Amino acid sequence: MVKKATFLTIIIFLCFLVISLQINAFDIESQYKIIDYKGGTFYSIFKSEDNTLYGAGVNENGEMGKGFTNTTNYFLPKNNMILENVKFYDASVNFIFAYSFDNKLYSWGNDQYGQLGLSNSINAMVVSKPTLVNFEPIVKEIALGFRHTVILDTDGYVYTCGDNWSSQLGQNITSSKGDRHPSLTKINQAFFDNQVIISIASSKYTSYALAANGDVYSWGDGIRGQLVTGADDVNKYVNKPVKTLFSNIVRISANDENVMAMDSNKDVYIAGSNSLKQLGVSTFKANYSSTPIQIEEKFDLENNAIISEIKSIACGGIVNFMVLENGDILSWGFSGENQTGIYGAETYLFKEGNNITVPTKIPFFEPLDIFNNFDLGEKPPVNTNSPIIVLIDKVVSSSGNRTFVLDSNNQVWAFGNNSSGLLSTGNTSTNIAPVLATMYRLFDYDKVIVPKNYLIKPLVGVITVLVIGGGLLLFLDIRRKYNAKMIKALEQKYKENVK
Fold first, then answer.
1. Do 403 and 397 form a contact (C-beta atoms < 8 A)?
2. Residues 405 and 413 sit within 8 Å (Cβ to Cβ)
3. Are residues 251 and 396 in the same domain?
4. 410-438 confidence digits (pLDDT tens)
5. How far is residue 133's CA from residue 426's CA, in Å, rounded to a whole number?
6. What is the chain's percent helix, strand, coil content, to nearest 5?
7. What is the tens place of the pLDDT at every residue in 255-311?
8. Among 250-254, 373-377, 428-432, which stretch is predicted with the lowest mean pLDDT?
9. What is the mean pLDDT of residues 432-457?
10. How many CB atoms lie within 10 A of CB 141?
11. Rg for the chain (alpha carbons), in Å?
12. Which band of pLDDT confidence, cut at 50, 70 and 90, is reported for residue 457?
């Protein structure tokens, strides 16, 4: 009876151990799974499935949120936890904003122009750790320019702070070069014709607001036609919101010197710079457009036209994207470091130098099986001889230099500039094709990525416990039988002596 109770207790304990370790394993895996990305030229900020921000890259302006600045490049995102409980965030050249689930707004990084929105509560050029912004309205969206910040609240009001040298704050004021505007200030709703604003976007020195009626407003720099008000806006700064030539719009996206818009019919329009063929229209040869141009051409690398409705858009500035309803993702623009993600375009009809001139389907390839001692060297961890079908759900984010996209299996792929390993794909060279991304790393960045099976060690531990426990039980049972035999022999001998 005692033996059975002991054995049952051991089994219950082992079951509890296995369940707890499995739960912990899933927690570990979710901790390092990338679900969002934002970044600047020299750093990346990743969001994990447990809503925690991790960083990789430079820390010269406190981008890594460590409380200090230095010239070290941080390669291991898992060692650079920045902020927990993050609902959404945005990152610019050298500063970051994040909004938490408990409705708190944080900012950190460069604050030379007051772009962190901290008023004068912290009088510093750099804020090296996430700092609470004194902002009471509930935040709906954050859109960061190069040196300015745009915030949209849930009531449809727009707030700005930071640099205003190009009139990008939209406050109907003029500023001198270097002036600071450190407080988030509401833009007069009359500038939007008293329309409720439902979405915002920022490019380099220009800002945009989408109204509920489908109108789009712009303000700031129009040097490349990105104000989208017609040819006369070029080389002008507009210091308050003006209505653009976009109409019936449901989605906007902007970056660098370009802006994209999708209307309710799922037609896509673009304006701004065309110096790198980022307008995506093969017949348009001018260096910019201040009027909306409809993007209609869609091709694969075999020069076959693609017929599918457009699902979503993403503007990276020097390179731009659209996701189709059939799961294809198309890109166009500058591809000097494979920012387009298109591999095998050497003889492609719509390639001019390093530029892809029309929206072109991005091909995907089979990921390599990479284990502990696999050294990637300068090769990406994909087999370019084995194309596969990957259905893309959306573009997570594009900083122009690098882009992260999410597929239908909830896996993140990354491509583009990979200096310092900022694509989190396990190698440090530019990836010639999209590669699966993960934040998990070895203790040192040695170009090796390890897809861990977190249940191996727990299972080995359980098996070890079972073997040792079983051996111990066997030993005790043998000893018990031996002792019983010896006692019986002694009893027999005693009886014989008594007779």
1. yes
2. yes
3. yes
4. 889 999 988 777 887 766 677 778 988 87
5. 35
6. 15, 35, 45
7. 999 999 999 999 999 999 999 999 999 999 999 999 999 999 999 998 899 989 999
8. 373-377
9. 56
10. 18
11. 30
12. low
Interior/surface letters 453-466, b for 16+ CB within 10 angstroms, e for the rest:
eeeeebeeebeeee
Coil vs helix vs strand at 497: helix
CATH assignment at residue 392: 2.130.10.30
Tens digit of each residue's pLDDT (9 = 90 or more) over 382-411 = 888 899 999 999 999 998 889 999 999 888
Q: Kindly state whether residues 14 and 158 are assigned to the same domain.
A: no
Return the exposure string of 203-214: e unless at least 16 CB atoms fall within 10 Å of the residue's CB, then b: bbbbbbbbbeeb
Parent domain of 366: 38-460
What Cα–Cα distance (Å) separates residue 268 from each residue in 11, 293, 307?
62, 8, 14
Q: How many domains does the chain have?
A: 2
CA 289/CA 258 separation, integer angstroms: 10
What are the DSSP calls for 23-49, one per residue?
HHHHHHHHHT-EEEEEE-SSEEEEEET
Pick from 83, 138, 142, 147: nearest CA to 111: 147
**Same structural domain for residues 358 and 251?**
yes
Whole-angstrom CA distances from 340 to 115, 175, 355, 362 are 30, 37, 9, 8
181 and 330 fall within a common domain: yes
